[in-house]
Structure formats: structure tokens, C-alpha cells
Amino acid sequence: MNDLLLRDFVTHLLEGDCSQAVKEAERLISSGYTAEQLVRNGIEPAAETLNEKCTSVQFNLLEIMLFGRAATEVMKVLYPGGSAVDSNKGTLLLATMEGDVHDLGKNITKMVLTCKGYRIIDCGKNCCISQLIDMAVKENPFAVGVSGLISSVVPKVRQIRQAMDEQGLSQVKIIAGGGTLKQLTPEQLNVDFVAETAFDVDRFLIEILGGENK
Amino acid sequence: MNSLELTLAAVTFRQANRVPVMPQVFGHAATFAGAALEDYIKDGEVLASCQLTAQKYYGYDVVFSVMDVNVETEAIGSVLKYNRNDYATIERYALSVKDDFDRLELPDPEKAGRMPQMLKALKIMKRYLNNTVPIIGCVLGPMTLATQLLGMEEALFLAVDHPERFMQLLDYTTNVLIRFGTTQLKAGAHLPVVFEPSASPAVVPHQFFREFELPQLTKLFTALKKAGAVFNWLHIAGPTQPILPYYQQIGVDIANIDYYVSANEAIQLLGDVCVSGNIKPLDFVETSAAEIEKISKKLIDDFETRGGLILSSGCEIPPEAKAENIAALVGAVQ
Predict the structure, then answer these.
(1) ipTM above 0.85, yes or no
(2) pTM score, whole prediction
């Protein structure tokens, strides 16, 4: 649902204008909007607009980071205690694999998916397979996203499926992304999907959830 | 024609008996020669020895004095974590956004961090190769050094929130790179390749490139040419189509392109700029020699009418690449 009265709010978010987005959020709250309305009808549609804009040629990190910063600051205003809106879209684990400390892509993905309403468990960087599996057993995610910028993570990514299966987690989808991993196909990596951008992850998740979260 | 003559012919679009081939072999040279990557990126003698061994074995047309993307930032004060068989990573950045960028001192390439070891490698390779094979040094681009000094997020937010301060930082990084690059030329490099991944359109919009980056790169390449660079080589990965039309204006002679940019797009967008690329780096690990040969021959065919091609990978060939795949790339130009 799109709300015309939130148009300025969405515009400020899309322009990455942090202070204006926060001011507008405060104004809307004082005029009777709830925090959840601002998330559902402001932040999520703004993220969707970026999604549509982000073809492989137009995508750039700066634009996404500015949106992410503005959205994060607005969330702090909306939920000063830190308890964000309940997600009904399910839980994902994200991790940058062992041997790799380049986690900017993972952090961007986390921000985008959080804004889209998923519950994200961040396993951090330099994450080994056993940590990932332990967390999956504990949190029962419907998907796991792993990133890798350097080529030495490829053999580790290939092992995740089997490690998941051995723990009875065959239903959990595995998504790969990042500079090195996206040069390969899902078959080569033994995963379910290889994402070019954070928005690709969202599109795949919508698909596996049967489109009900559009 | 020797490798240097072949390269000069490709850059100036002159006839030659074959296309030069320059696989971006950096850490792979260590793996190939049986050296630890940590020794390779710390010790100029090890680096030179591995590069010369790999070049002699494969028979390609280049050697590189390239350690990693952290040489300059370490020389300025960033703290690195070294790994025995992997590249080093930054543990603590040298600068914060609160620092006064006007008061920063330029590192001395003869003394600071690993810079002297890179120079040592260049001197050894120059002595050995006797001006027959291009000896390529390396500096970061101004934007990439800024992100390596502050961290990517801090640097990009600084650019948006305080553009005038970000420009000050870019002025500083450009001066660091001019000094380092000039010293590499004196040590024996034919040129330093300029690695600028942070200016890729995958990171910043092309308008950002035009406003912030273009003046700095122009200044850097003008200074390098003046200091004796045989030609200017710019290496930006990702979907670079929107910024390729600026390359001639910047003074670029060789444009690295990777697999996001097709041969046709490069030809249309680059004018008379030589192209280096664009085979997927991971193909050297994942595919077969026959596949590398096929892709290489297709690329050579695509550029046959136009000329101005250096056959290469789109970015660094991974250290664990298969030797037969690199050999297939080299064999494709024969």
C-alpha cells in the first residue's frame, strides 16, 4: 500500500537525506502515524523503488548506503528502545565466510532485507561453517546468505549444502553473493541461488516464499 | 618483436606479429613458485624472484611489482593483519574523519612500510629483464586510497556530508600516489598501473566520478607521464560503461575492463584507448584450458579489425589458478 501523505518521507529516504527523513518521520508521528505505518508504507516502498532502479549498470553502493543510513536513523526515532516492527517474512542468516573480512556487501544486504521486513541474524565476518550451522540449528532460518570477495572462500561455500543436510537442514535455501562468488553459477557453488545485488536476494526470497510477500 | 615492443605497438594501434598477453598474475606467482604469500607481499626479493620465474615459465609479456592494495595505507599508518598464505587485511585504519587532512605528511617511498620492498623488486626485475619485458609497478587510485585510509563507509559518507573535506583528502592521496609512482619509475618501472576499484560505478555513480575523481586522475596521470611513464594504465573493475568515455580526457592509454563490459561496448566507448581484459578471473580456477583458449580466441577476433588489445584477465588471476589455464591464455595469441 502506498500513502501519498508519505511521499516526502519516501523522497527524503531515496535521496539519502538523513536529517530531512528523520524530521519528516517525527512530523508524521506527531500527526498520528504509527511507527509500523511508516515502515510498511514509507521505508519498504522506498526500498522497493531502489530495487526497481538497481539494474546491474545503475546499481551503486553509495546510493544504497545513503538510503540505509537514513532508514537506520529513522528506525532509531521510530523504535527508540530498539525493538523493531515484528517481521512476518521469516528469518535469514547472513555471513561473510571464513578467510574473508570484506563484509560491506553483507552489511548492505542486511540493511536492505531488514527494511524489507525480514528478520536477519548476522553471523559476522570470517564465519566458519560450523558457526553457521550452529546458528542455523538455533534460529531455524528459511535461508542462509553467504558472501565472499576473495576466491579462497569458494571451497568453503561448496561445503555448506552437505553440512546443512547432515544437520537435517535440507529445506534451508543457500544464497551466495559478493565479488568472487557471483562469477560462478549455483551449480558450481552447490547453492540454490547466486545474487548480483542485495535486491536480487529479495527477489529470490519472494520467489521461494511463493510471492506472498510482494 | 620483444614483449615491450609488442605492448607499445598495441597501445599505439600499430601492426605487430601478435597480440601481447598480460595475465594479471600477482599472488599466483608465489603459489606457482612455492613461496608463502606473506613472504611474497613483504619481501621485494621474493616478489621479484617469483615474478621472474612465472614469466619465464609461461612466456607472457609482463612482470608486476604488485603486493596488495594495502601498501600505501600501511605506509601512512594503517595496521595490517598478515596471513601466512593469504593477503593481508586492514585491522585499524590510519585516519578518522576528524583528522586534519591538510596536516598529513607524505610517506617517503624509500622508507615507509613495504614501499621500499616494492622498489627493490622493480630494481631486481629491471636488472634481469634488460628492457625487453614491460615492468609494471602499482599505485592505488586517489579514491581507493581514501577508502583504504578511512574505511569505505566513512569515506563515502564524508564525500556526501562534507565534500570539501573529502576533496582535501583526495588532494592528499593524489600527492601520495604521485610521489610513490614517480619513485617506482625511477626504480625501473615502465609505468605503475593505477588500481582504482573504489571509483567503479558499482560503488559510486558516474556523476560522482566526474566531479570528484576525474580531476584527481587527470593530475595523477599527467604527473606520471611527465615523470617518464611509458604509458598510463587505469584499472577499474565492474560495470564501467558509464565512465569509459572519460578515459581519453583523463590521459589513459590502457583501460582495464572486466567481464561486465563486452568487447563491443569497450570498442564503442573507449575511442583510441587500448583495452586490457576481460576474461573472468575465476575462469582460471574453474574452467578448462580448452575453454580459456576458446574465450581468448573469440576476444582476439573481436578486436582484430580495431586493434589495441592486450589479452588479459579482467582482474587479478586468483593465486590458486590452474597453471594449464594460464598457459592456454598465453598459447591463444600464438
Answers:
(1) no
(2) 0.89
